[in-house]
């Protein structure tokens, strides 16, 4: 038991370390903000930022109370996106409480102003000021007694308001004694404290709808165990894991109800512990109420209490599940945004680990969780994981093969495949969350909790399905996985690679599949020889198993090529199809270059696609057009560049080497803020001049005649 507890806390330490070392920080981006920072006792630096929209600045100014004294003249700094005004003021810190600070001149506009007041004692006041309520009254510093009272009541109310929790506790009363329940309650509360603490730093985000739905599903499964009259479905060790995961999730859903404005670090600590105490009291009340209700049922019925309790809880849980599921039916965007490959791998790998009897539950969870968390860290550390989707589906395929071939049910093989698939699945999870959701790190941690609940449930609960009964389903899912692999491979190869080959050949490049050529050489070298002497001695021809393996690798490694200049290519006047390919490639390279963080690499890429005299102009003009009208601090990533139309060639002085065309193209970019993600689509119409410079097609001139900007929500992209 002691070793199990050590392993369990190893998981928690890993989760804690995963949330802390990553330097993933972000600020809420607002087009206008007012920041007041105390730099010395009674001395404050003021920063007022206004957006510049199409060369115009909003005529707004901060309004300070009479207690504020200005020290010197303001310093004004203006660029193409923002106007910044800085100055210094003085005010007695003891007189701050009750003072009103506001913004004048925003009424009638659509500009929100972010206000922040930071003091030397650690207190931080922050609020979004709307045009209709553009003022903030500084509150009095909170007292320890007031913090404790508010937090205690808040914690108890939050737990008591989660009605599915009553059903879960009621059905668990049939599995555990009050002494065991007290340990589970303490464990739940401690992890809710950890979850709330992580949520205050935006390291953990969890949806209340998901929490309620998970609680109802667990209640339904527990009631099924009572109907079977089998209480061995849930052991105390497993219940500790469930309570820890649910505690983390509950702490995260409590965060929106917690207001920490004006709190020092000691105030925050008091608040968090008081909330935890309130949660503990609420948990004790629910347990005692459920326990007394169960005793009352036993006194009335005297027998078959478990069966009746299972029926009552099961019917209620099922009905509430249907009710809660209606939300996802009406608003599909509320569903967890998990990749298909990740979902199928989690289900298959959990069942595969279930068949490894030599490893206990905690070790199985570690085998799954550690690589999964390791894979998610790749995205946040900026490390690429090539072919993650293909590897995840391939591992799923291998595990399914192990499911219905007893000869492949080897413990080291299963564990190795699960670890490799978990790393790639973790990368897929974090990549999907980062691309589609805000609070990427917190959302990823929340989804990890959901996945661990699913895996723990599959590993723990008994099933009456034998291997023979599962064989048809295993074969079906195997073929689905194989089909998915083929679809992905065909999309990557036929839809992308062949187009790439054509375009590269047009511009004078060739792709050499060195690995495939090496495999062909190995096929020839390993093919079994059958000479006359073998025939004379009546020896059987060896089967070319190894040669077939290299032959298969020859096909699958064809996308991995080396690009080189085509020495036989002759540059000539391109036809309409070739002009489209050349223009598409150059524009795509030009705009996606702005995704590079390194300015040197950016200018190198631009120089490879643009004539030297055009590089600086395109750099400044394109960056301005991509970021015009955006909030300061927004992250713009170009995702797609599409040439929609190319007109007839325009006559020039040099018709042999200069090719000028009217072109219409669209640039789609993702704009990421901390609180939301949207897409913007810029449609351009202009004239592009192409010519061969140093045996490379480049744009020598670009003239825009029109531009149309469109904002697209993330759900409608």
UniProtKB/TrEMBL annotation:
Keywords: Membrane, Signal, Transmembrane, Transmembrane helix. The keyword Amino-acid biosynthesis does not apply. Residues 1-26 form the signal peptide. The keyword Signal applies. The chain crosses the membrane at residues 159-178, 185-203, 209-227, 239-258, 270-288, 308-331, 337-353, 365-381, 387-405, 412-430, 436-461, 473-490, 505-524, 545-562. This is Uncharacterized protein. It comes from Pseudotamlana haliotis.
């Amino acid at each position: 038991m002691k070793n199990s507890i050590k392993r369990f806390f190893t998981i928690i330490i890993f989760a804690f370390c995963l949330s802390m070392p990553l330097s993933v920080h972000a600020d809420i981006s607002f087009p206008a903000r007012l920041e007041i920072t105390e730099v010395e006792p009674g001395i404050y630096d003021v920063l007022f930022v206004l957006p510049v929209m199409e060369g115009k600045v909003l005529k707004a100014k901060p309004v300070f109370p009479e207690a504020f004294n200005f020290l010197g003249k303001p310093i004004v700094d203006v660029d193409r996106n923002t106007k910044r005004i800085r100055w210094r003021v003085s005010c007695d810190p003891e007189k701050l409480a009750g003072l009103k600070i506001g913004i004048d001149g925003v009424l009638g506009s659509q500009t929100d102003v972010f206000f922040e007041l930071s003091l030397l004692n650690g207190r931080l006041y922050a609020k979004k000021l709307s045009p209709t309520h553009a003022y903030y009254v500084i509150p009095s510093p909170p007292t320890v007694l007031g913090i404790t009272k508010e937090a205690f009541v808040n914690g108890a109310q939050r737990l008591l308001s989660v009605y599915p929790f009553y059903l879960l506790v009621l059905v668990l009363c049939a599995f555990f004694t009050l002494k065991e329940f007290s340990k589970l309650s303490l464990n739940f509360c401690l992890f809710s404290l950890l979850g709330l603490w992580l949520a205050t730093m935006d390291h953990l985000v969890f949806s209340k709808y998901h929490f309620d739905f998970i609680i109802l599903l667990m209640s339904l499964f527990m009631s099924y165990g009572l109907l079977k009259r089998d209480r061995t479905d849930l052991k105390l060790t497993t219940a500790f894991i469930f309570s820890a995961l649910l505690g983390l999730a509950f702490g995260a859903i409590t965060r929106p109800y917690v207001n920490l404005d004006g709190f020092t670090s000691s105030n925050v600590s008091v608040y968090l512990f008081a909330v935890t105490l309130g949660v503990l009291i609420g948990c004790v009340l629910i347990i005692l109420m459920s326990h007394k209700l169960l005793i009352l049922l036993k006194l009335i019925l005297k027998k078959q209490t478990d069966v009746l309790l299972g029926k009552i809880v099961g019917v209620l849980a099922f009905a509430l599940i249907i009710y809660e599921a209606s939300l996802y039916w009406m608003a599909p965007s509320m569903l967890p945004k998990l990749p298909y490959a990740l979902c199928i791998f989690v289900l298959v790998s959990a069942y595969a680990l279930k068949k490894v009897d030599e490893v206990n539950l905690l070790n199985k969870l570690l085998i799954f969780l550690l690589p999964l968390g390791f894979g998610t860290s790749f995205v946040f550390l900026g490390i690429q994981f090539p072919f993650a989707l293909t590897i995840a589906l391939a591992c799923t395929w291998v595990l399914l093969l192990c499911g219905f071939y007893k000869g492949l049910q080897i413990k080291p093989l299963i564990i190795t495949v699960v670890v490799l698939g978990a790393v790639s699945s973790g990368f897929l999870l974090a990549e999907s969350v980062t691309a589609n959701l805000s609070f990427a790190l917190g959302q990823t941690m929340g989804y990890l909790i959901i996945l661990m609940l699913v895996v723990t449930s599959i590993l723990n609960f008994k099933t009456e399905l034998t291997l023979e009964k599962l064989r048809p389903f295993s074969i079906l899912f195997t073929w689905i996985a194989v089909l998915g692999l083929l679809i992905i491979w065909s999309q990557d190869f036929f839809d992308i690679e062949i187009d790439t080959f054509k375009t590269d050949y047009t511009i004078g490049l060739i792709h050499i599949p060195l690995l495939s050529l090496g495999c062909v050489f190995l096929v020839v070298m390993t093919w079994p020889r059958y000479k006359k002497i073998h025939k004379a001695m009546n020896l059987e021809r060896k089967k070319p198993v190894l040669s077939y393996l290299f032959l298969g690798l020859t096909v699958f490694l064809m996308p991995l090529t080396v690009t080189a200049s085509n020495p036989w290519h002759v540059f000539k006047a391109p036809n309409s199809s070739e002009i489209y390919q050349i223009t598409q490639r150059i524009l795509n390279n030009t705009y996606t270059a702005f995704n590079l963080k390194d300015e040197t690499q950016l200018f190198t890429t631009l120089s490879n696609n643009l004539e030297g005299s055009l590089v600086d102009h395109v750099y400044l003009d394109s960056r301005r057009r991509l970021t015009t009208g955006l909030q300061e601090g927004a992250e713009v990533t170009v995702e797609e560049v599409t040439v929609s139309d190319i007109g007839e060639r325009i006559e020039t002085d040099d018709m042999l080497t200069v090719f000028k065309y009217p072109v219409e193209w669209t640039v789609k970019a993702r704009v990421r803020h901390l609180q939301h993600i949207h897409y913007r689509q810029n449609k351009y119409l202009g004239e592009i001049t192409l010519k061969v410079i140093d045996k490379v097609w480049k744009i020598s001139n670009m003239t825009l005649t029109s531009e149309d900007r469109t904002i697209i929500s993330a759900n409608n992209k």
